[in-house]
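Reviewer comment 2.1 asked that we show a complete input and output for one of the modelled complexes. We chose the NAP case, as it is the one discussed in the main text.
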Amino acid sequence: MTSPVSVVSGGSRGLGFAIVQSLLARGDRVATFSRSTSPQLDALLAANPECLHAARADAASLLQIREFVAGVAARFGQIDHCVANAAIAHEGVLATMRDDEIESMVAVNVTGTIVFVRECVRQMLVAADGDRSVTLISSVVASRGSPGLSVYAATKAALEGFCICLARELGPRGIRVNALAPGFLDTDLSASLAMENRERISRRLAMQRLGTTADVAGVVSTVSGSGMSFVTSQVVGVDGGS
Ligand SMILES: NC(=O)c1ccc[n+]([C@@H]2O[C@H](COP(=O)([O-])OP(=O)(O)OC[C@H]3O[C@@H](n4cnc5c(N)ncnc54)[C@H](OP(=O)(O)O)[C@@H]3O)[C@@H](O)[C@H]2O)c1
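Response of the prediction step:
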């Protein structure tokens, strides 16, 4: 039996890289794309040449997404799990946010994600059976809010609605769709947050610490795994109890 194929957007660093590592560790063949590579992804690729596929593509380019997913299907012959992780965040109050900042967040976080999922789902539908899933990476700010993140939160809330509808659409075909809503994680995306804000956030959490990318990647591996075969249409908070 061949091992499952998982496709992860934005796997060069941060949470996406941790997800790639975790899915490789569970025995999947994994494919990922990002606009640029990273030393850690290059090292992982060198150590796993047969089961890791990495390419450069921009989630804002629908053509590049289509070509990437077609390349994965051609190389691995199937797609079983899709993890839509790539996103960008421009922080700032709405009144001063530029058009191009709003447009780029919608293009990458919403349109790029939806088209990436569609391309993966088309491949999943070719397979007659087997455990298949879509996991969307949302954010705690979609439901809890945070000043300066209204547009970013809007893109993540859009994915949560997408998740719930798509789960209904794909359930009869045996494909599960869930979203994870992580709390603050220490990655490049959140690097602008001052140390005092980090301490304030962690004091408010039940777990009294900020999450790590490994905390969230472990949940991706579990939620997309066959042990969760009756779990769909869920938005799972991975936020240390916010
Ligand atoms: N960090 C947090 O506190 C936090 C909290 C809640 C949810 N999240 C969510 O978790 C996910 C991962 O965030 P992160 O913190 O790991 O971000 P990150 O460190 O900035 O990494 C983002 C990844 O996505 C890729 N990416 C960004 N724009 C892309 C594009 N246009 N096309 C292709 N790839 C693109 C990046 O690679 P390139 O730049 O090379 O393209 C990188 O691999 C996101 O969905 C984010 O919204 C993060």
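Helices lie at 14-25, 39-47, 62-76, 99-126, 141-144, 150-170, 195-204, 213-223. We note this here for comparison with the apo prediction described in Section 3.2.
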